Amino acid sequence: MGYLFISPWLIGFFIFTLFPIIASFVLAFTRYDILSPPRWIGIDNWLRLLEDNRYHNSLRATFYYVFTAVPLRLIFALLVAMLLKPSTRLASIYRGIYYLPSLIGGSVAIAVVWRQVFGLEGLINFILGTIGLKGTNWLGNPNTAIWTLIILAVWQFGSPMLIFLAGLKQIPESLYEAASIDGASGWSQFVKITLPMLSPVILFNLIMQIINGFMVFTQAYIITSGGPLDTTLFYSLYVYQKAFQSFEMGYASAMAWVLLMIIAFFTVLAFKTSRFWVYYESEEVR
Amino acid sequence: MKKFGSVLLVVLMCLSLVSSITLAQEKIPLRVAWWGSQDRHNRTLKVIEMFEKKYPNIKIYPEYTAWNDYWTKLNTQAAGKNLPDVIQHDYAYLSEWATRGLLLPLDDFIAKGVINLSNVAENQISPGRVGGKVYAINLGTNSQAILYDPEIFKKTGVPFPKVGWTWNDFREAAVKIKTKLGIYGAEAITYADAQAFKVWLMSHGTWLYADDGKSVGYKDDKLFSDWFNMLLDLQAKGAIPNIEVEVARGTLGVEDMFIVTQKSAMGHLWSNQIVAVSRAAKERTLRMALVPKAPIPNAKPANYLKASQFFSISSQSKYPKEAAMFIDFFTNSIDANKVLFAERGVPISSKIQKALLPLLGPAQREMFNFISLVEKNSLPIPPPDPPGASDVIKNVWNPMVEQIMYGKITPDKAAIEFREKVNKILQQR
Amino acid sequence: MVGGTKGRYLNVLYHLITFLLGITMIYPVLWMLGSSFKESSDIFTTMGRLIPTRFTVGNYIEGWKGFGNVTFTTFFKNSFIIAGVGTIATVFSSALVAYGFARIPFQGRNLWFTIMMITLMLPFQVQIIPQYIMFNRLNWINTFYPLIIPKFFGGAFFIFLIMQFIRGLPLELDESAEIDGAGRLGTFWWIILPLIRPAMITAGLFSFYWTWDDFLGPLLYLNQATLYTVSLALKSFADPTAVTNWGAVFAMSVLSLVPVLFIFIFFQKYLTEGIATTGMKG
Questions:
Q1: Which residues from chain A sit within 8 angstroms of residue C120, using beta carbons?
Q2: For chain B, how many structural domains are there in total?
Q3: Which of A174, B93, B203, C104 is the most buried (most CB within 10 A)?
Q4: What is the pLDDT of residue C274?
Q5: Are the beta carbons of B276 and C145 separated by less than 8 Å?
Q6: What architecture is domain A22-285?
Q7: Which of B7, B15, B76 sits opposite C129 (nearest CB)?
Q8: Are B403 and B364 in a shared domain?
């Protein structure tokens, strides 16, 4: 019976997903420049990872990004979701406004916009100027460039926010009413009702943000191209550069599979710890 | 479930509608691919229309996008053995593609006159040659240039660049402009693709890669460190933008060069880009000078004629002759070139050049004049970059430039490291 | 809620914070809007200004014309077909699969769930070429098939999303439905589906927007301009090596936001009504 329900995905998996995944795994053991057929080279690609300096730069940049952008984005998204939860007319307008930045996505326009915002004469430096601070060249300074991308990620917090919002809406109002009658404060309502009831959704957002965080690509691709000094050379960007600009698809595939293992490790970690903090209404099914 | 079923039905109908568009017609189908922006797409599409009118038995399916995406797509198509018939190509990738047998040699078509090159000089054909065979036809001639703003030069009393000027003259001019006006003397010299450094080597009588493509071509590491010491000096004096500034603005397009906003007196670019820059600068007069020579006695010219881009034919093409006819139309039709209007660089046919000359605007005339100046002051085009060159530029040169300009490594040290790393990459291939 | 002056202060504070934050959020978008009304040559020279000095709608007219004879009317139509059909397909198939994973115990469930999560973790960059070869074998290149058909088989992200929402629902719901004699499919269709409407609308919004915004798929699989989507057309406007009409780039970027924004505003109403209309009475 279960297989009947998951059959759409199962069929799709075997038809569309399995082959590319297997192919990329096999390619990881070859030298493949795309234009001529792949040649088997054993584990050379994997060994090469150990001594590739730029690869290490990309690891550093990616971990830095994941451990800053992911929590910031989640916290911000949850805060805004709480802020916008009321079903008033105004709140729905705000929701539209807050979601708008997330819709801009990865067009060329965002590269120009972002450069304006963080440029020497841009918005950020203007705001800093009004409170008497001196700005910097955010995108050109190796210490700050990655923060422009982190802030961009936080700015485009719309998708986790929307999921939180949907989750908040699913919490029965009656629970809050009962708590209010018992005299529970706003904070204890948040801790005792909101967080536990929302925890399956928090887990979802956490896992998806970890996955997406490790695979972050578009923003760095269109705005910084990995620079300066490789400080924004995110993992996927380096994979792309190796695959399509240096024509080392085999090496890129090996890198991709290492990333898969890294992400899997953190995802399993999140799942394993989830039993201590995620509350399911339907406990038995787990 | 009923609703879902009807939705499905609509979907399937949509899909079948879409697929019917792509059903083969009886005409000879020819796929033509190029990169560019809206302006180039429109011009090229108009020429395609003209071609189809002339040859009603041929139907052209254009495939166009922007530079970066173009190569992602084209490489994927190559892997899938589904390449377009006519492929716009670049010198950087041409030899790799030709040696892998992905492109068709065009010598037969040229000999038979399907592609008529009788009005084309040899130095316009040679960029398309790989291993003695012509694999690609030049769509427009280009050369590196120093773009300068004559108004600013006049204002500061700095003499205009002359034929035969050297990097010392360049440095002097840039610093003087900086001290007098407080604006940058020049910009974009450190740019990502090592082009300026390559012609600096050329003017020293050597090249970045050895003839066999297995090692660095120049013998003396001083050439490397001299180049960067000059740039560091200019950067320290504020005569060129700080590396932070260069990195921050990225490579969106030539439209946002500092020379457009009069924040810089000189810039480094390919000659066909003057049209875009001048347009952005609201048709203010901008001029082009040859790339400065090396500051040594008997320095060689620092310019060569390059193809801005090529058309080539896929070796998988089922209709190579028709593809060749299309390339010929592009090269020799006066009407077509009036539409294309030298947007891809100066046309290679002397007949076309003559026909276009009276119609040109000031920026394009500057481009034509500059190319004829280069023809008299240039070396033959250097051999195509060896396999692995894109790896060298992306993974060694670019990071190295940043490290040097950010002051993380001295030019002397970098010179040694650069040589080691490049040799390693080239020998692996 | 809380009466008296304290409540009113809180209320003012709430609106103040939301408003100020909103302005910061939307500033870059406004800047983009402003630039779309500037003369093309002014965009880079007057980057610091929000309001154009010379106001023009020419960018919209010039941009809409697209390339050759193919205008943005075509691109928008294509995007609507791909994103619309794809979204409906993904949401329903994903909900079905999610129910299977969340509620029905069966052998190998954890294994398949793990495999599904793993498919999310492999960078797409290395899958491009095998995928292309596969679709080329199927003879699907230059059609919408590679962009639409896979959507009928659910998306791992959406399956997981909807799963988490289903797992948040009390199990008694299913049980009581089964007592009433509804089969699994009936339970899914009559009980679960209405309750997870917020999750499905959320998934739908994402799916629509992501498909709308995706340009790599269209880039690889669509060759003819008559099949191009808005996102791909936008990318084809600008080229660092040629003359670029930046005004048109901004104008069309702004227009490409309009449909997604409208769909969002329209559906977020349902998102907030979700519980109110279905009632969580169990």
A1: 211
A2: 2
A3: B203
A4: 45
A5: no
A6: Orthogonal Bundle (1.10)
A7: B76
A8: no
